[in-house]
Write a structure and sequence with these properties.
339 residues, two-stranded antiparallel ribbon, mainly alpha, globular, two-stranded parallel sheet
């Protein structure tokens, strides 16, 4: 009897799971319909950052610092994670939507969509209690745990990305800065220092929740920004005074240091940050690996609200990251010139 519904959910999920831009838009559209599903907006903002990381690989700096093969491996790592999360979480959202239409919970169907039993319990709890915090943090736990074996611990990604690029991931890339742009080019966010640690990724999710949702006025400004700046994958979306999605100036022209304190020097051209559609083609993904991650009941301890006040200041740290990237790219170019 419910088979047509399950097939419809799978089709709708696949339709929106084409690339980072379509996923990111689907999260926002869903949150605007159902603001009580806070993870949909948190997921939207984090997915924007995922898209920026993808296009960075074809942008101004990393094309100088990494080989085409390395950049390709890095992209497939990011894309697989982004794709996996969407195909796990979006069916949950669509089942919630259908439950509202029928005025009855349908979460017993989650198992037919290969969703963890952990989330079936959580969704039923949410249906009865409307605890938006517990639902959001449970989804953070679920998605990060879901990725753990399928991406983070996957031997191919361990070898080709995580072991190889540890220095880039931790020290150089803006990969570890999660940015929330809002009014007039302002930024808030958090930094992740140990990407390979499941615990650290879950704790980052809790801190991001606090930054985004603890202050209603700030949340309104971020939502307004997101609605008025459709995600393209280019960092021009939030800082058009620094980035452009077309290349400016002469190709191969050696440049002096252009950036100082997050401002371009007078007359300096902007940094190239392409749109996703111009950076990468859509990827056909193999089916998600089966299996339920939920084996240890102690993960429920993460659901406790720590009531920690989080300062979302990130601009200075992000500016330093950009400056380090520019210097590294310039040094590499100069070094290659003398080889």
């Amino acid at each position: 009897m419910e088979r047509p519904l399950i097939e419809k959910i799978k089709e709708q999920t696949e339709e929106h799971n084409l690339n980072n831009v379509t996923r990111t838009k689907a999260y926002l559209d869903f949150n605007l319909r159902y603001p009580e599903i806070k993870w949909a907006f948190l997921g939207h903002m984090v997915s924007r950052n995922g898209g920026w990381n993808m296009t960075d690989l074809q942008g101004e700096f990393l094309t100088r610092l990494l080989s085409p093969k390395e950049r390709n491996s890095f992209f497939h790592f990011l894309e697989r994670g982004n794709w996996l999360i969407f195909q796990d979480v979006y069916p949950q959202f669509l089942l919630y939507e259908e439950s509202l239409k029928r005025n009855q919970p349908l979460f017993h169907l989650l198992s037919y969509l290969n969703i963890s039993t952990f989330m079936e319990t959580i969704w039923n709890h949410f249906w009865r209690n409307q605890d938006t915090y517990i639902l959001c943090i449970a989804l953070v736990i679920n998605e990060q745990s879901y990725l753990e074996k399928r991406v983070i611990q996957h031997p191919v990604y361990q070898k080709e990305v995580l072991n190889k690029f540890e220095f880039f991931l931790q020290d150089l890339l803006s990969f570890n800065n999660i940015l929330f742009p809002y009014a007039n080019g302002k930024l808030a966010g958090q930094t992740l220092h140990q990407f390979e640690s499941l615990h650290e990724r879950i704790m980052l999710g809790k801190r991001l929740y606090s930054v985004l949702f603890d202050n209603k006025d700030f949340l309104r400004q971020v939502v307004d920004w997101a609605k008025s700046h459709p995600h393209s994958g280019s960092r021009k979306d939030y800082w058009p005074h620094i980035f452009n999605n077309v290349k400016e100036g002469l190709p191969g022209f050696t440049y002096p240091i252009r950036l100082k304190s997050c401002q371009l020097r007078k007359g300096a051209r902007r940094f190239y940050s392409p749109r996703l559609e111009h950076a990468w083609k859509n990827v056909s993904q193999p089916e998600a690996e089966k299996g339920d991650w939920f084996k240890d009941y102690r993960v429920v301890e993460y659901l406790v609200d720590d009531h920690e006040q989080i300062d979302g200041e990130i601009k200075n740290e992000y500016c330093k990251t950009l400056e380090r990237l520019e210097v590294a790219a310039l040094a590499k170019k100069t070094f290659n010139f003398f080889e």
